[in-house]
Design brief:
The complex is a heterodimer of chains A (548) and B (185). Chain A is α/β, with parallel strands linked by helices. Among the domains of chain A are: 115-356, NADH-ubiquinone oxidoreductase 51kDa subunit (Rossmann fold); 368-484, Orthogonal Bundle (Fumarate Reductase Iron-sulfur Protein, Chain B, domain 2), CATH 1.10.1060. In chain A, 39% of the residues lie in helices and 16% in strands. Chain A is built from 15 helices and 17 strands. Chain A has helices at residues 124-131, 146-149, 173-180, 182-196, 210-223, 241-249, 269-280, 310-316, 374-378, 385-393, 397-402, 413-417, 424-484, 488-510, 521-547, and strands spanning 27-28, 34-38, 48-49, 56-57, 62-65, 74-75, 80-89, 97-105, 159-164, 200-206, 227-232, 264-268, 287-294, 300-305, 324-329, 336-337, 351-356. Chain A has a six-stranded mixed beta sheet with strand order 1-14-13-17-15-16, with helices on both faces. In chain A, strands 2-8-7-4 form a four-stranded antiparallel beta sheet, with no helix packed on it. Chain A has a four-stranded parallel beta sheet with strand order 11-10-9-12, sandwiched between helices. In chain A, strand 10, helix 5 (210-223) and strand 11 form a beta-alpha-beta unit. Chain B is mostly helical and 185 residues long. Among the domains of chain B are: 32-86, 3-methyladenine DNA Glycosylase II, Chain A, domain 3, CATH 1.10.15; 101-164, Alpha-Beta Plaits (2-Layer Sandwich). Chain B contains six helices and four strands, in the order ααααβαβββα. Chain B has helices at 2-25, 32-40, 54-62, 75-86, 117-121, 181-184, and strands at 103-107, 127-128, 136-137, 157-161. Chain B has a two-stranded antiparallel ribbon with strand order 1-4. In chain B, strand 2 (127-128) and strand 3 form a beta hairpin. In chain B, helix 2 (32-40) packs across helix 3 (54-62). The radius of gyration of chain B is 26 Å and the shape is elongated. Classes of the chains: A alpha/beta (548), B mainly alpha (185).
Chain lengths: 548, 185
């Protein structure tokens, strides 16, 4: 049975460099001494740490709880003691630090009781609820929390596509995974199909991975699963979700929409494998396959726990050879420079490449754009990269957006073919993040304005209410006063009060000091002197108080 | 001759009448220019411009009573946008007015006595608390206007600059080296 393969526009075929690392089976990495597990490994809100320094944790225990709607849980990769919950360098193009839980391994690798999910008997909604704590996140690059893609009640899904194209040079982790654990991947796909009710399963892979395609076909046959393996020509970026969708189904994802909107759901093969582990074995996502290649002595693929320091991983591959010029995280097309090799492996890391001058020559200085149009021919999203570059460079963001900047998938084809060596994608990333920041500021300003207006309104209302209340009280008092004018009881009380005041006054006047009678004239004179001085002093004091 | 004068006068009268009716019928509520200016202002409601909030400042700008360089939170880009809209030359900030980095107010919870003075000062109701209860600031809603700092009788509020984190980090403007290290080395 053959499917017609539709072509995608643009793309290119850079040197593959797959053979360096795809010849050896996946090596299961030994336990590291220390794991650094970042709380932000996925798109959306970072997880909130639920352990503190000194706690003992077990393998698979949740250490970060999902926060908000789009978030994923984070679990301990092995058993040990929490050494710290602190800011550590993470894998990010900014080179900034982020909140991580540092776990010191105790070597026992003791696990919490893993609870497999009997998914065949569960309703899709129930399955989704059970998976919200599994920490699954897409391993294709965007690290979107996987359970959200399985929320039932969305668009009816026609195709479930497993993305095994792995189009970027150097990377072979999906290739090895498909060769060695094809049945497990298909188990995962069956679970996904059950959850989203997809009619067909398509597995897309490139023709440079014949062993993987064969293994997947054999596994589908063995499991008697209706999954078609479709081999597409090797051409970068056929592994982009939108590109693979178009290659396999002929449907182009409209601008600004997701594959889900047109009844297609795409998962990476690695995500399907993790889904199998999470559901059939009850093990949350605590490991993944990472390719270590480039300028290292023994390139290959390693199954490592999440949180393994990248330097430890490089050492597993025999360490970097002499004259290493740095590391790339991800492939050479879309990856970025690794700032700090102590940063840990996270759910999104699929490949670490050690660079050398021979493998990755220094980028020549950029020259002015000559408007040759090579970039437009290479662009798989059919954009006009030189126009986008022009507008992004001049910070004319409105124009850049009008030229569909946000349809750019940042594949790097344009930068690759540019004869002037302009880092085009860097300009698009800059423009995109500026636009996003501007929109965020705008939203915040709008919110502040609303709140301020409401604040003013409230003050006005409170003022009015207070005035009304006081007015009412005054009126009440006046009413009462009018009534009590000839009230005998009140008159009696008033008379009593007045009598008491008069009595007190009289008593005060009548009170004469007992020691001023029968004084000698000498004493009388002294008393008078003192009285006079007191009077003067008190007058002086009053004066000074008034002046002050 | 007379008929020509009558015709012209008649046309004048008729047009005048239409304009008069149109002015009453299609009267725009509020000042549209002030609205547009208000959209540009950062809505911090800090009053550093000398007006009671962003809207009064926008209204003063629309009437030509205020200068465009009175809004420190808007920064230089803000001045440029205001200048563009008003059709005037952008000018630098006046004496003593400086743009500050964006910050949020933080209450030192061990010192707060629960007097509610800051709650009354906050223009966007971003402070939560009650009399004799500990107050706290909702950082996401705080505009950094600093209006809560001076009313505090125990000086327990301070401003903290919002630092760059992974969530608010932005890609930098690409800098293209003029001389490649590879060539000079």
């Amino acid at each position: 049975m053959s499917r017609k393969i539709r072509a995608i526009p643009g793309g290119l075929h850079p040197p593959e460099h797959k053979n360096e690392s795809n010849g050896r089976p996946i090596v299961v990495a030994p336990l590291a001494e220390r794991y650094i597990v970042p709380m932000r490994q996925h798109i959306g809100e970072p997880a909130q740490p639920v352990v503190k320094t000194g706690d003992r944790v077990l393998k698979g225990q949740m250490i970060g709880a999902p926060e908000g709607r789009i978030s994923a849980a984070v679990h301990a990769p092995t058993s040990g003691r929490v050494a710290a919950v602190e800011q550590r360098p993470i894998v990010h193009p900014s080179g900034l630090t982020d909140l991580c839980v540092v776990i010191e391994t105790d070597g026992q690798d003791e696990a919490v009781a893993m609870q497999p999910i009997a998914w065949r008997d569960l309703e899709p909604g129930e399955l989704y609820t059970r998976l919200t704590q599994s920490g699954l996140a897409g391993q294709g690059g965007a690290v979107f929390p996987s359970h959200i893609k399985l929320i039932p009640g969305g668009n009816p899904i026609q195709y479930l596509i497993l993305n095994g194209a792995e189009c970027e040079p150097w990377i072979t982790c999906d290739d090895r995974l498909m060769r060695e654990r094809a049945e497990d991947i298909l188990h995962g796909a069956a679970i996904m199909q059950h959850a989203i009710g997809a009619r067909h399963i398509l597995i897309g892979t490139e023709d440079n991975k014949p062993e993987a395609a064969e293994a997947m076909r054999a596994a589908a046959k063995a499991l008697d699963l209706d999954a078609k393996v479709v081999v597409v020509p090797t051409r970068y970026p056929s592994g982009g979700a939108k590109q693979l969708t178009q290659l396999l189904t002929g449907v182009e994802t409209p601008s600004g929409k997701l594959a889900t909107d047109i009844g297609i759901q795409v998962f990476n093969v690695g995500t399907a494998y993790s889904m199998y582990r999470a559901v059939e074995l009850g093990e949350p996502m605590i490991s993944r396959i990472v390719t270590v290649t480039g300028h290292v002595s023994q390139p290959g693929n390693f199954e490592v726990r999440i949180g393994t320091p990248i330097q430890t991983l490089l050492d597993l591959a025999g360490g970097e050879l002499d004259h290493c010029t740095g590391h790339l995280v991800g492939g050479p097309m879309m990856g970025f420079e690794l700032g700090d090799a102590t940063a840990p492996v996270v759910k999104s890391v699929n490949c670490i490449i050690a660079k050398s001058e021979a493998l990755f020559p220094h980028h020549p200085p950029a020259m002015p754009c000559i408007r040759c149009g090579q970039c437009a021919l290479a662009c798989p999203a059919q954009l006009q990269p030189f126009d986008l570059y022009w507008h992004a460079k001049s910070k004319n963001f409105d124009r850049a957006e009008a030229y569909h900047l946000f349809d750019c998938i940042e594949c790097g084809c344009c930068s690759y073919v540019c004869p002037s060596h302009i880092p085009l994608v860097d300009f698009y990333r800059f423009a995109k993040s500026e636009i996003n920041a501007r929109n965020r500021d705008k939203r915040n300003a709008e919110l502040a304005r609303e709140r301020h207006e409401y604040h003013e309104l409230r003050l006005e209302r409170e003022k009015k209410e207070k005035a009304e209340r006081l007015g009412k009280k005054a009126a009440e008092r006046l009413d009462k006063g009018a009534v009590t004018e000839d009230d005998p009881e009140a008159a009696r009380k008033k008379a009593l009060l007045e009598a008491a005041i008069a009595k007190a006054k009289q008593a005060k006047e009548a009170a004469q000091p007992k020691n001023v009678e029968n004084l000698t004239p000498e004493q009388q004179r002294q008393v008078e002197e003192i009285e006079a001085r007191r009077k003067r002093e008190s007058a002086a004091q009053q004066n000074s108080e008034q002046q002050a | 001759m007379i008929s020509a004068i009558l015709v012209m006068a008649g046309i004048g009268l008729a047009l005048g009448l239409i304009l008069g009716i149109a002015e009453i019928r299609f009267k725009v509520a509020g000042n549209p220019m002030a609205e547009k200016l208000n959209d540009i202002l950062p809505q911090t409601q800090c009053g550093q411009c000398g007006y009671a909030g962003c809207k009064p400042y926008a209204e003063a700008l629309a009437k030509g009573e205020a200068d465009i360089n009175r809004c420190p939170p808007g920064g230089e880009p803000g001045i440029h946008k205001l200048a563009d809209l008003l059709g005037v030359e952008p000018k630098p900030f006046g004496e003593g007015v400086v743009a500050k980095p964006k910050s949020v107010a933080i209450i030192d919870e061990s010192t707060c006595i629960g007097c509610t003075l800051c709650i009354q000062a906050c223009p966007v109701d971003a402070i939560i608390g009650a009399s004799k209860q500990l107050h706290t600031i909702v950082a996401d809603l705080c505009t950094g206007c600093e209006l809560c700092i001076s009313p505090c009788p125990v000086d327990c509020i301070h401003m903290e600059v919002i630092h760059e984190t992974v969530s608010n980090w932005k890609w930098r403007y690409p800098v293209i080296p003029i001389h490649s290290e590879g060539i000079t080395a």
